[in-house]
Give the backbone structure.
Amino acid sequence: MDSFTIYLLAGAIAGLLGGLFGLGGGAIVVPVLIYCFTLNQVDQSVLTHLAIGTSLATIVVTSLSSIHTHHKKQAVLWPVAVWMVPGIGLGAIMGSLFAAELSGSMLQGLFGGFLILMALQMAIGGSPKPHRDLPGRWLGTGNGAGIGFVSGVFGIGGGSLSVPYFAYCNVNMKNAVATSAALGFPIALLGAATYIFRGLGTVGLPESAVGFVFLPALVGIVLTSIPCARLGALLAHRLPAKHLKRLFAVLAFVLGVVFISSNAG
């Protein structure tokens, strides 16, 4: 099987599982890319950075489809999104710069820890109970910076962080998901741009890489992830979502433990 076919399959798997479990693509794309790049014997020193940068680049494209759908349903709280963007954007840039300075093994270990935390949250289920209203602009911008920073480090669109944040602030879940999707675009755009810039000239990158973004993987994943995400979303309405999420939580937990243990020391 040639490499591009693997990336097409990776996009199909990421899209299907993302739509099925209601997750942003990064939490699935990054582990899949780490596996694919390992098979293709990409230099270990750049492998994880390349997976995360490429993941963010795919989200730039795939998030536009999601934003369009939510906007048509008038579910995006655009005023909230607009005043959170400066913090989100700055956080994504700083998180990407921080990650670029880490060794590949350290970054993979941290990503493993992130997967374990995400798995525990999914296994427990539910969202945080609403305790307050949305904060003012300055505090909201600061909270956005935190979400953007973590998203930039791990190559995710931020949905696993921003949706619970909005739910905690008494935002209707439909609006929380839609506004989170809107915020995923600037996170991915600025994060991917930072990974590209920071990766330029790095020793060990494969051909067809622009900085820490691998173009064949980007194209392959985008081609299949969007239609498969729609299929996953349709299946989610017909299958027992709670049990499926817990099943995926087990997978994420195992992957997290594998990443940490393989990079310990």
